[in-house]
Write a structure and sequence with these properties.
alpha/beta, Rossmann fold, 24% strand, globular
Amino acid sequence: MKTEDIAYLDGPLNMSGFVAYEENQSAPRPGVLVMHEAWGLGEHVISRCKMLAELGYVAFAADLFGDRRQITKREEAMATIADLRANPQKLRARTRAALTALSALPQVDSQRLGGIGYCFGGTAILELARDGADLAGVVSFHGGLETTMPAVPGEVKARILVCTGADDPMVPSTQVKTFEDEMHKAGADVRVISHTGAVHGFTNPKNDGSIAPGILYNQAADHQSWAAMRAFFSDVFGK
C-alpha cells in the first residue's frame, strides 16, 4: 500500500491531505474523499483511508482546517467548526478544493468519485453533495444534518447514505426528519440508517464517553455502517 501526504490549496490557504491506495493496481480506480471530525485530520480518518485502499479505492483525506491543524480542546473544536457551519459557501469551497486534488491524482478515475465523512466531516460531505458536486455517492457517519443552505431541487447529483445513531443527542430524530424532507424536496436519492443504541461518534474506538456521555464508540454500529458503506459503493461504482 502506498501512503503519502498531498499538498494542495484552498485559495491562499495551505492544505495538507493524505492519500492511500494499493500500488499493485495499474488501472485508474474510483476515488473516495474522506472528511475528518472536529479534531482535524488524524489517526481515525487515516485508518479509514487505509481500509478503503484495501477495498480497491484511492482514498484521500481532506484537510478542512489548513496546515493539518490538530485540535485537542473541545471549546476550540466547537468554535472552529461553528465558523465553517455558519459559512456553508466557505465550507463548500474548502471541500471542493479537496475534491479537485483527489480527482487530479493519476491513480483516480475522475469519472467515478465518492466521499465519506465522520461527525463534522459528515456535515462537510453533505454540503459538498448539496452543492451539486460530481459525486456518484456520499456517506455520512454520525454527521450533523442541518444546513443554512438547503439543497436546490435537481442540483444534488450524488446518491446519499446517512448512517446515524438512533440515540444521538446531537442529531435528534427531528433533525433527521427535516433532512429527509429537504432531500425529498430536492429530488435526491437518499437512504438513512438509524443504528439502534448508538449515540454520536460511534465509529471511533477512542470515543469512551470522557469527552461527553453522548460521544461513545459502538462496535456493532461501526461494523454495520461500514458494511452498509461497502455495499453502497459497490452499487454506485459497479464494482
